[in-house]
Amino acid sequence: MNCSIDVFYDETKGFSKHINDTSAYKAVLVESGSFVVEENGEYRVIAAPAALAINEKADFRVVSDSGVKTVTVFFKPSFIREEFTFDAINSGKYDKFLSSVADGENMSPNERMRAALKGKGAEFSKDFTGSLYQDAILLLEFNGHQRNVVYYSLTGQELAFAVRICQNIRHELEDQPDNFWVLRTRYYLYSLLFTATADFYRDNRLDEIYKDPLVARVAGFMWENLGNDIALNDILKEFSVNKNIINDAFNSELSMSCMAYLEHLRMKFANKLLQFTNYSVSEISNMCGYRDTNYFSKVFKKHTGMTASEYQKQMKDLC
Questions:
Q1: How far apart are CA 156 and CA 127, in angstroms?
Q2: Is 174 in the same domain as 269?
Q3: Is the peptide bond before 49 cis (omega within 30 degrees of 0)?
Q4: Which of 126, 200, 266, 290 could form a disulfide with 296 if both were Cys (CB 3.0 to 4.6 A apart)?
Q5: What's the distance, CA 306 to chain centroid?
Q6: pLDDT at 200
Q7: How many CB atoms are located within 10 Å of the residue 125 CB?
Q8: Residue partners of 72: CB distance under 8 A and separation at least 6
Q9: Regions of the chain with pLDDT less than 70
Q10: Do 289 and 154 share a structural domain?
Q11: Is residue 219 part of a domain?
């Protein structure tokens, strides 16, 4: 992808044809649909709403997708700060800012930042207080992990917020309304990157990795239809397999049947909604495919030890 500016916007069905461009980072919002991506012979399932941080080294391979619509902002790190060239970043010059922060893969970004500040010398701590450190942290999701692609699941509110930022970027790039459009573009890009660094995104699908492509494809179908009534016969028909084949695949891969895994995904989604949204329990029940709220709460209690209402209250009390 050749362009004369350091930021480029693309909105399309599926994924941008430039998704594996080696001259830019890619911040991708998945507005609708689901897809399966291959990583070193394993498969990851992502369903909207979601976000991806893809660096210039990634070989992003989508093996199947359904109804995917994406918004992508391409940018060179030098647009954030002039000295942030790919050569400088990949030379390890800024590793002192990122390595300690990225060590705690199970920590939130804020927790990793606090951990990085502990036990450092005075000179290092001084660096951490400057704008160089702050700007480097904005790029943490692209070069602070041991992965070339980082995935996030979003709530609907999070997606809407991020899409609005991207639309502002598009407006500035396309209309260039006055002499300050570059400054505003940088501001909006900062805002987009800060949402991830500030623990705005909740990464609930990072560990959903599958070895069997059939299991991955079925899981993608489940995510896409999580709020719908799904019977085993619907899945068997969709994938032209019989009950024994699909349950053998799921038991081999995940030690549970196909429909038990659907319940697992629904409870995982319910957990997220109860923690990070203001939807009522009945609304969440419906969004997770349960038309009977009482039954939904019983299933949720089976998985968590408390009803959905009790869990929601506990999360609000903690906040």
A1: 37
A2: no
A3: yes
A4: 290
A5: 28
A6: 47
A7: 14
A8: 9, 10, 11, 12, 15, 16, 18, 19, 26, 27, 28, 29
A9: 1-4, 96-130, 144-145, 196-207, 319
A10: no
A11: no
Domain ranges, residue 296: 225-318
Lookup: tokens for 10:
């693309």
Query: What is the 8-class DSSP label of residue 240?
Result: T
Alpha helices, DSSP H only, in the chain? 86-90, 95-103, 109-117, 122-128, 131-138, 140-143, 156-175, 181-197, 213-224, 232-239, 243-254, 258-276, 281-287, 293-304, 308-318
Confidence (pTM): 0.75
Specify if 156 maps to a domain.
yes
Rounded alpha-carbon distances, angstroms, from residue 263 to 35, 217, 279, 299: 20, 17, 20, 8
The DSSP letter of residue 79 is G
Q: Which residues contact 94 (CB under 8 A, 6 or more apart)?
A: 84, 88, 136
Q: Do 36 and 170 belong together in one domain? A: yes
What domain count does the chain have?
3
CB 48 within 8 A of CB 14: no
Return the amino acid letter for 81.
Answer: R
CA 105 to chain centre: 14
DSSP codes, 98-136: HHHHHH-TTS-HHHHHHHHHTT--HHHHHHHTSHHHHHH
- Which residue, among 37, 41, 42, has the nearest Cα to 20 in the 3D structure? 37
Copy the structure tokens of residue 318: 């903690």
Asked if residues 109 and 196 have their Cβ atoms less than 8 Å apart, the reply is: yes
CB 30 within 8 A of CB 45: no
Token pair 């507005």 is at which residue?
A: 31
Render pLDDT for 147-194 as a digit per residue (tens, 0 to 9).
899 888 887 778 899 999 999 999 999 999 999 999 999 999 999 998
